[in-house]
């Protein structure tokens, strides 16, 4: 009988529970997909330190389970509020509190179980996508393949049970404590409204701003300290900023509300009086929650932006840093033969499909180095770019560091001719080429290089020699240390150009793409994925809290809207008021996170934009962060709006 | 005196084929401007249904209701809000005040909805509060005042736009006897001094005795009606009790 009742109750309350169900499902889905990723043997086998990702995701899952349990607490409060009268009726009929509690727990068990199963299913699908993203980052050939792991499934079940169990424990204790009189008459209780005085609110607001400024100063100091003391400064600064954000978000809505109410023209305009009353009540009852949500959203947005930008930024830099599978750079006047033994050494370990040995010629009196056109075209050929041609009295500049391009362009406009060894060269028709060819060590130490006709280049001193190789299957990570060992051992004997001497200190650089991917990209992939995992779940949880805050007072709101309906406010106006009310509640907590994100994007662009070798990368990932955030946020806003409208504007008797 | 409200053969049925409940069978009456009419009847007699139909909250199954010449039954959904704003004032048993607004703001709300210029609002609210003796609680919230004060605030809100008709549904239902007396005196004063037309549903003979005319409903029809005329309120009260005894109602 009770099981039947539980099922019927779920079916009846399905609409009220939809946001709760979706949140649980999404949390389970994200949890499973990320855990499956972190525990996938294929992913873990990609690099030796990929276990970083597993550790990160496991730690975050604990944090997420903890945070989710609070959100479930909110949902439970909403559900209990909706069903007070029903529970009172059960009690009046003689049902024991224990039975009511069990009935509620069974219902929630069914909802939770359903959400978990659906979440695990969606998560399995999602894991395939995440798997593809990772494979794509690591440039491994991939197809869509879901990750099914019993371990991930078990872990998800464990974390889900943990968070859900905590929420249910809270619900059981609330049901046990509630008295039948409260269940019957709670919704008739009056709401108490009382705010601090305007002066006190202004003073607290100003104090919060002062605390925030102190936090920023402390942070600025911390960033300039090289010792461990920096952690103390930064930690203290973050704490001060978060306290200030919390307090400001508690005070700003109160200030705006009090100011709006002080102005009769604004207060008495159209339905503003009603709107202000509604908002005042929301600020009063949900002020703390909205401030906490602000902090969660701030963390979410910054984590997502930093995670995505750092990951993508590093990838962009690495593409340029490692365009060749392997390379050796030696700043010494060696003969090209010196590199033959190096090539042979590599050849013994993996097939060299192509290679180029070339000089970086020194241009007298200039801070730029030069490549001969034939070497340049050979490098282009290795990288799959088409050859270029210039006539004997022309030159061009190759620059793949985008932030130098404008400067070089300007310089070329001012001075389009150069004279080398008595021969004057003019800039070619296309004077600057920008394909990623890596010019830090291999093709030019300054990030740009002059490309000269072979005849002109050969007359310049070749004081730096380079060897680049295209390897079958891209080589392997250990090649780097093997090469280093070989070059430093006595096995390799460099041959010096006639009439030249070895410098006292010979600068040597070895790059192996496979090693770069294995040892550096992993960290950033971990950062990006952990950032994404944490931020998406935090956004979902924040949105759920806001939605439940609204829905838990839906009965009160229905009553209030019924009053203005009878006072002659049209349905359209009521819809507009609902939209205005919900928008305010949903967007107040966005105030600081959005301002901070915009500043963060602008600041990152200003400070680090030039370090990223892909133009517009910061802005692109800034936009991705905002769009992804908006998509989740607006979905929840839309769903809350739909439910709110549906319940409040439920057809009146007429 | 002109006719404010006219009901012609009102019928209201609930349910569907085979299971029809006739809440109102056939009711016709009219109310003149400035009249204070009480509607009495036992539970289920149709008095609240009648009030809901007049107030555009519910629709009639048959018949016509004319308020100041406008047929209420012909009003479209889009016109209802404007019609209510301009013609009706409501007073309910459970006050229907907004907890989120102060007493003064609750009264002002009706004016802002009616697009009264902001500069006029405070003055009008104070004037109305003076009439109903609630000036000293204007800045308080509903939870800070008594039930009687809340109901007087609801009355002030109902009358402040000078509607053609004030509809009161058991206005003293949630009040103690002292507060009820104060409220009824206030309603009577609104009727006598401001000339407001009032239609009040009640099952309480004492409350009804403040009206000038009482319609007694039974099983969805008007069973009888009595006028106060030049009688004292006490005599009128006795008359009401007599009718109630006759109909088998009496004091509930």
TrEMBL record, chain A:
Pfam families: FtsX (PF02687). The chain crosses the membrane at residues 17-37, 57-76, 103-130, 150-169, 198-218, 230-248, 291-314, 526-548, 582-608, 620-644. The keyword Manganese does not apply. Its main location: membrane. It is a multi-pass membrane protein. It comes from the Bacteria. GO terms for cellular component: plasma membrane. Residues 59-178 form the ABC3 transporter permease C-terminal domain. It is found in: Cell membrane. One of its GO terms (biological process) is transmembrane transport. InterPro entries: ABC-4_Integral_Memb_Prot (IPR052536), ABC3_permease_C (IPR003838), ABC_permease_BceB-typ (IPR027022). Keywords: Cell membrane, Membrane, Transmembrane, Transmembrane helix, Transport. Belongs to the ABC-4 integral membrane protein family. This is ABC3 transporter permease C-terminal domain-containing protein. It comes from Eubacterium plexicaudatum ASF492.
């Amino acid at each position: 009988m009770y099981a039947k009742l539980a099922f019927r109750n779920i079916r009846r309350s399905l609409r009220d529970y939809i946001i709760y169900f979706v949140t649980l499902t999404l949390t389970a889905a994200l949890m499973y997909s990320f855990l499956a990723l972190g525990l996938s043997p294929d992913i873990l086998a990609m690099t030796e330190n990929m276990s970083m990702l597993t550790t990160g995701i496991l730690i975050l899952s604990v944090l997420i389970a903890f945070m989710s349990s609070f959100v479930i607490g909110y949902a439970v409060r909403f559900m209990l509020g909706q069903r007070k009268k029903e529970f009172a009726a059960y009690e009046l009929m003689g049902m024991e509190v224990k039975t009511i509690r069990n009935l509620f727990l069974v219902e929630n068990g069914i909802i939770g179980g359903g959400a978990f199963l659906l979440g695990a299913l969606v998560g399995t699908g999602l894991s395939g996508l995440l798997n593809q993203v990772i494979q794509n980052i690591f440039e491994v050939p991939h197809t869509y393949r879901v990750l099914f792991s019993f371990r991930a499934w078990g872990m998800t079940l464990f974390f889900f049970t943990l968070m859900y169990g905590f929420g249910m424990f809270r619900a059981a204790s609330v049901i046990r404590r509630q008295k039948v009189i409260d269940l019957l008459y709670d919704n008739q209780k009056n709401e108490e409204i009382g705010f601090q005085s305007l002066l006190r609110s202004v003073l607290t607001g100003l104090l919060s701003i002062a605390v925030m400024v102190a936090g920023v100063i402390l942070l600025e100091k911390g960033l300039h300290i090289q010792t461990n003391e920096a952690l103390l400064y930064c930690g203290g600064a973050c704490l001060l900023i978060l306290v200030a954000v919390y307090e400001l978000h508690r005070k700003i809505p109160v200030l705006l509300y009090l100011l709006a109410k002080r102005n009769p023209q604004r207060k008495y305009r159209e339905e503003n009086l009603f709107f202000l009353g509604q908002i005042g009540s929301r600020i009063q009852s949900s002020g703390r929650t909205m401030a906490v949500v602000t902090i969660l959203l701030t963390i979410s947005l910054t984590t997502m932006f930093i995670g995505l930008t750092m990951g993508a930024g590093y990838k962009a830099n690495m593409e340029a840093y490692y365009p060749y599978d392997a390379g050796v750079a030696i700043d010494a006047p060696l003969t090209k033969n010196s590199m033959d033994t190096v090539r042979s050494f590599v050849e013994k370990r993996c097939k060299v499909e192509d290679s180029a040995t070339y000089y970086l010629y020194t241009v007298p009196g200039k801070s730029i180095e030069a490549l001969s056109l034939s070497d340049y075209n050979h490098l282009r050929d290795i990288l799959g770019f088409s050859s270029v041609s210039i006539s004997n009295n022309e030159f061009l500049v190759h620059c793949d560091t985008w932030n130098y391009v404008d400067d070089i362009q300007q310089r070329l406009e001012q001075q389009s001719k150069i004279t080398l060894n008595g021969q004057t060269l003019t800039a070619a028709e296309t004077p600057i080429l920008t394909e990623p060819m890596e010019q830090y060590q291999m093709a030019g130490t300054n990030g740009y290089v002059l490309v000269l006709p072979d005849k002109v280049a050969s007359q310049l001193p070749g004081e730096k020699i380079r060897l680049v190789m295209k390897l079958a299957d891209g080589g392997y990570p250990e090649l780097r240390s093997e090469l280093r060992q070989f070059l430093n051992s006595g096995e390799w004997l460099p041959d010096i150009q006639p009439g030249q001497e070895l410098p006292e200190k010979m600068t040597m650089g070895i790059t192996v793409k496979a090693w770069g991917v294995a040892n550096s990209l992993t960290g950033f992939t971990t950062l990006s994925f952990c950032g994404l995992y944490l931020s998406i779940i935090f956004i979902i949880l924040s949105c759920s809290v806001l939605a439940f805050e609204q829905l838990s007072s839906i009965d009160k709101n229905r009553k209030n809207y019924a009053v203005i309906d009878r006072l002659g406010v049209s349905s359209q106006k009521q819809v507009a008021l609902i939209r205005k009310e919900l928008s305010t509640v949903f967007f107040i907590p966005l105030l600081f996170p959005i301002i901070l994100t915009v500043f963060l994007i602008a600041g990152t662009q200003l400070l680090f934009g030039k370090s990223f070798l892909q133009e517009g990368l910061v802005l692109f990932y800034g936009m991705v962060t905002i769009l992804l955030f908006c998509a989740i946020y607006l979905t929840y806003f839309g769903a809350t709006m739909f439910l709110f409208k549906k319940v409040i504007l439920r057809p009146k008797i007429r | 005196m002109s006719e404010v409200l006219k009901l012609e053969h009102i019928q209201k049925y609930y349910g569907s084929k085979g299971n029809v409940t006739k809440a109102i069978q056939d009711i016709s009456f009219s109310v003149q401007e400035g009249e204070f009419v009480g509607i009495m009847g036992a539970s289920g007699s149709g008095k609240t249904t009648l009030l809901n139909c007049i107030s555009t909250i519910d629709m009639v199954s048959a018949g016509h209701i004319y308020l100041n010449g406008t047929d209420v039954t012909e009003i479209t959904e889009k016109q209802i809000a404007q019609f209510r704003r301009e013609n009706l004032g409501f007073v309910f048993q459970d006050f229907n005040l907004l907890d989120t607004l102060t007493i003064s703001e609750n009264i002002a709300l009706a004016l802002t909805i009616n697009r009264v210029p902001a500069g006029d609002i405070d003055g009008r609210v104070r004037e109305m509060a003076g009439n109903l003796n609630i000036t000293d609680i204007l800045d308080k919230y509903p939870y800070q005042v008594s039930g009687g004060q809340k109901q007087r605030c609801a009355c002030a809100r109902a009358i402040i736009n000078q509607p053609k008709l004030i509809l009161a549904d058991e206005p003293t239902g949630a009040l103690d006897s002292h507060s009820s007396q104060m409220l009824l005196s206030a309603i009577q004063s609104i009727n006598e001094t401001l000339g407001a037309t009032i239609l009040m549903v009640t099952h309480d003979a004492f409350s009804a005795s403040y009206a000038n005319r009482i319609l007694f409903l039974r099983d969805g029809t008007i069973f009888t009606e009595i006028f106060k005329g030049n009688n004292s309120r006490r005599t009128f009260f006795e008359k009401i009790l007599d009718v109630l005894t006759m109909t088998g109602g009496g004091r509930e």
